[in-house]
Each structure stands twice: as structure tokens, then as C-alpha cells.
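task queued by scheduler; priority normal; single chain, no ligands, no partner chains; default sampling; output format set to C-alpha cells
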Amino acid sequence: MPMHTPGAPQTLHLFGDVVRAEALHYTELFAEKPFVPALLLYCSNGAYRILSPGEDHPGSYVAEGPLSAERVRVNFISWPSEDWNRNVAFHVLDFDRTTGGFTQRLRLPGDPEPRHQAGRHTEVTDLGAWDADTTWETAEPLLHETFEALARG
């Protein structure tokens, strides 16, 4: 049986397997995005999703080194979503695994000034495999203690 029938609509598979999950706790926020906890899902094909109580947006990432490195910079371009008024955003996050901290620079189209954010993070490893269909509502109860620990510092 053929995988695709000529002329039939094709489903575009945008997300690869989730290869890393990172719980974030923001201590400095961009005022228009006041969501302190977040879950960042990295996929094998360079796609990502970030989930929080008020956001769910996908995009693409390029890491400047292995994601597991003690210090790594990751460049993110969000895909057009309702979270960004059907536009894109560019984020650069610098993760320091020795301190558990991260910094973030956000650039919005047409805005000459970057927005700065920062916080704490930890890799989520003990909950089995995540997938790209994970939602905040399904993830948060499983990660509640992790987010509480990040909030305490």
C-alpha cells in the first residue's frame, strides 16, 4: 500500500522526536510575557516547543555546541503563532549548567531594542519520553515539584 496517494493532502510532520526537555523558571521577564514557569522541548530535527501557563509556541533552534555542554548558547526563531501576533521572534539563550542559570535576549521584528530575561533551569530526565504533542496542562502536574524547586532557587 502506498504511503501517499497522488493528489491527496499531505500531513506535514514538523516535529522530530523530543531529545531534551528543560524546565525553566524566569526571574526576569519581558512584561508582555509574564509566565514564570515554562517547559522547553527540543526535537531531533531542530524544531522546539515552549509551553507555559499562557503560551504554546513552536519554532526552530540551532545550538552552538552540544545541548548537554556545561555552557551552551542556543538560538531560537519562533514560527508565526498567536503568541507573537502571527509573527516571529528571535531568542538567544545562554545556559550555564554549572550554576543552573540562563540569560535570554529577545528580539521582535522592527523593535531595535532587545528584551532581556533570565532565570533558572534544569533538565527533565526522570519522567520518560516527552513528545511534541505534550501540552502545558499535561506537563505541569508531572513537573510541579520541579517548578517549585526552581522557584525556591
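post-processing summary
- The longest strand covers residues 18-28.
- DSSP finds one helix and eight strands in the chain.
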